[in-house]
Write a structure and sequence with these properties.
The protein is α/β, with parallel strands linked by helices. Helix content is 39%, strand content 15%. The strands form 3 sheets. The protein has a 7-stranded mixed β-sheet, with helices on both faces. Strands 8-11-12-13-14-15 form a 6-stranded parallel β-sheet. Strands 9-10 form a two-stranded antiparallel sheet. Helix 14 (326-334) links the parallel strand 12 and strand 13 (337-345). Helix 6 crosses helix 7 (108-121).
């Protein structure tokens, strides 16, 4: 019996959270598609240390709808552990006029399966698809009998306009073809199935115009899981203060937020931090920006405001080694930052060039050292099995990872996601299956996982074995273990290391 079934036995829909418009406006349901931590990780052991954070993309859309008077409900299926039949039954009880689905490539198969069940139970309900996978593979998303309309790119205002059309009795092609940022099914002159696009909506230039995410529509922060090794205080809130990344990494999908960096002002950013702390009880905040420190003047202003307002919280962020300075890291440390995550990817300079990473191994070493000298905990992520990879370059990458003063290292099997330059190249070369989403795993379970891509001259088994080797050799080194023991400053570190080691050895 899972969480939802148990709760339903006690009090039906006890887990649901309603906003100020409940029972007043047109009912809109937004679903964060079912996807367990094990499915996200591709490994039941690694799932134990996975992150489960509030779905900010969904909550931004919900906030925009609430602001315009809609009665919004959010089902965060991964957090609620809702099965597909349970989701169908819950939707049948609520009978929303409109359902919005947000999905990734990893959750796309689950999205189609669960939406089909909903459509059978509530055939008159309109379902619109959105999320990163739509932007990456738009035509493939409508290649089914479930979804007729999808939203590509930033969805806040497009979804609002579609909801308004439905509310006003104008939900038909005559009207919604004028909504920017849509794709929809149509018939060609010979009656054949076609996917048509409306003009691009473009990006939201002033992110400060968006309301704060509707965090009141999902479970409280303590109900979400933050990896112990990457969190110091609980509960942990999440925040995204910018969109768009100008980097050109071939493995990264920029189809939703684009290449142009846009950010909340430092004032708006700290306002949201203060809200998370005082209203939602956050004691730590994770910034999920692709490159948090890209605008360093903004971050310096943010640090000053944290001091001015005397906000008591700690925080972590993701950034690039070429968006780093020793002075900035020292300032961040004084303002409560305790950990930074670098997307390192590889220790071989030729492999970095193949990825279009825009960095070098020397730059990586320098930035990691700057962060450590500032007193920060440092995490690094590495890619295994990128096109052009060999047994020799993989070994070189592992040696490089072990040579850095990292507190945590994450190793990921290269996955060619839709919308990336790497994916396009491999499709042209005929080296991957275009729509086999069962192959899309971020991490590898040696017994069950299938790889979406294997480099020339290598085998799937070789990649899997090497992945296991990476984690064991990095984390089970006596020098590493002793270094971490010496650096223990709080109990979460102890728990994190124990939990992480158990995952590494498969316990």
């Amino acid at each position: 019996m899972n969480y939802i079934t148990f709760i339903n036995l006690l009090k039906p829909c006890n887990f649901m959270y309603y906003g100020p418009n409940h029972g007043k406006g047109m009912k809109v349901l937004i679903v964060n598609a079912p996807l367990s931590l094990a499915e996200q990780a591709g490994n039941s052991s690694l799932a134990k240390v996975g992150n489960l954070q509030q779905p900010l993309g969904v909550l931004y859309i919900a906030a925009v709808l609430e602001k315009e008077g809609f009665d919004v409900i959010v089902y965060d299926c991964p957090q609620l552990d809702i099965t597909m039949p349970e989701l169908r039954d819950l939707v049948a009880k609520e009978k929303p006029s409109l359902i919005g689905y947000s999905c990734t490539t990893l959750s796309f198969n689950n999205t189609v399966k669960s939406a089909k069940l909903i459509k059978e139970a509530v055939p008159d309900t309109t379902i619109i698809l959105g999320g990163p996978h739509v932007a990456a593979d738009p035509k493939g998303c409508l290649d089914n009998d479930i979804f007729d309309v999808a939203i590509t790119g930033e969805a806040e205002y497009a979804f609002l306009e579609m909801a308004e059309l439905l509310r006003d009795g104008k939900y038909d092609k005559e009207h919604y073809v004028n909504v920017k940022g849509l794709l929809y099914k149509d018939k060609g002159m010979k009656g054949e199935h076609m996917v048509r696009f409306t003009p691009s909506r473009g990006f939201i230039n002033n992110l400060d115009e968006l309301p704060f995410p509707a965090r009141h529509l999902v479970a409280p922060l303590p109900e979400y899981k933050a990896t112990i090794a990457s969190s110091m205080r609980h509960p942990v809130g999440s925040l995204m203060s910018s969109r768009g990344c100008p980097a050109q990494c071939k493995f990264c999908d920029r189809s939703v937020f684009g290449n142009r960096f846009r950010a909340h002002s430092a004032e708006r950013l700290v306002d949201e931090c203060e809200l998370l702390i005082k209203k939602f009880g956050a004691r730590e905040i994770k910034f999920w920006d692709d490159t948090f420190t890209l605008n360093q003047a903004r971050i310096r202003k943010m640090c000053d405001l944290i001091h001015e307002r005397k906000l008591d919280f700690v925080w972590t962020c993701l950034t690039r080694v070429d968006a780093s300075t020793p002075e900035l890291f020292k300032m961040m440390k004084k303002a409560g930052c305790w950990q930074v995550l670098f997307g390192i990817e590889h220790g071989n300079d030729e492999m970095l060039k193949k990825m279009k990473k825009g960095t070098t191994s020397a730059m990586i070493r320098k930035a990691v050292r700057w962060a450590k000298d500032a007193g920060l905990n440092v995490r690094g992520s590495f890619v295994v099995g990128y096109p052009g990879e060999t047994s020799e370059t993989m070994e070189e990458n592992l040696v490089f990872a072990k040579s850095l003063p990292l507190d945590v290292a994450s190793f990921y099997v290269f996955t060619p996601y839709h919308g990336t330059e790497a994916f396009h190249d491999l499709v042209v070369q005929g080296k991957i299956k275009h729509n086999d989403y069962d192959h899309y795993h971020e991490m590898i379970d040696p017994d069950t996982a299938k790889l979406a891509y294997v480099p020339d001259g290598m085998t799937e088994e070789e990649i899997k074995v090497f992945m296991s080797k990476c984690y064991k050799e990095f984390f089970l080194r006596p020098s590493y273990i002793w270094g971490q023991i010496k650096g223990i400053r709080h109990m979460n570190q102890v728990l994190g290391y124990v939990e992480g080691l158990r995952a590494v050895v498969g316990l």
